[in-house]
UniProtKB/TrEMBL annotation:
Domain AMP-binding enzyme C-terminal: 7-32
Domain of life: Eukaryota
Lineage: Eukaryota, Metazoa, Ecdysozoa, Arthropoda, Hexapoda
Any Pfam family hit: AMP-binding_C
Protein name: AMP-binding enzyme C-terminal domain-containing protein
């Protein structure tokens, strides 16, 4: 099952602390793909370490 970067962005943007997100799909020569993302948090959430760690994922 393939998931587009846009689908992942919409899920991440559902979180109230997220202001902006950019997800980039990267082709994997062995098949499938990987992704990378950049997230901009709302000002009041920027110093919450648990939230920063929550979104450090590989997919």
């Amino acid at each position: 099952m393939l998931i587009s970067p846009t689908e992942i962005e919409s899920i991440i943007l559902d979180h109230p602390a997220i202001r902006e997100v950019c997800v980039i799909g990267i082709s994997d020569p062995k098949g499938g793909g990987k992704g990378a993302h950049a997230i901009n948090l709302h000002r009041f959430h920027r110093n919450q370490k648990w939230l920063k760690n929550l979104f450090v994922v590989t997919f």
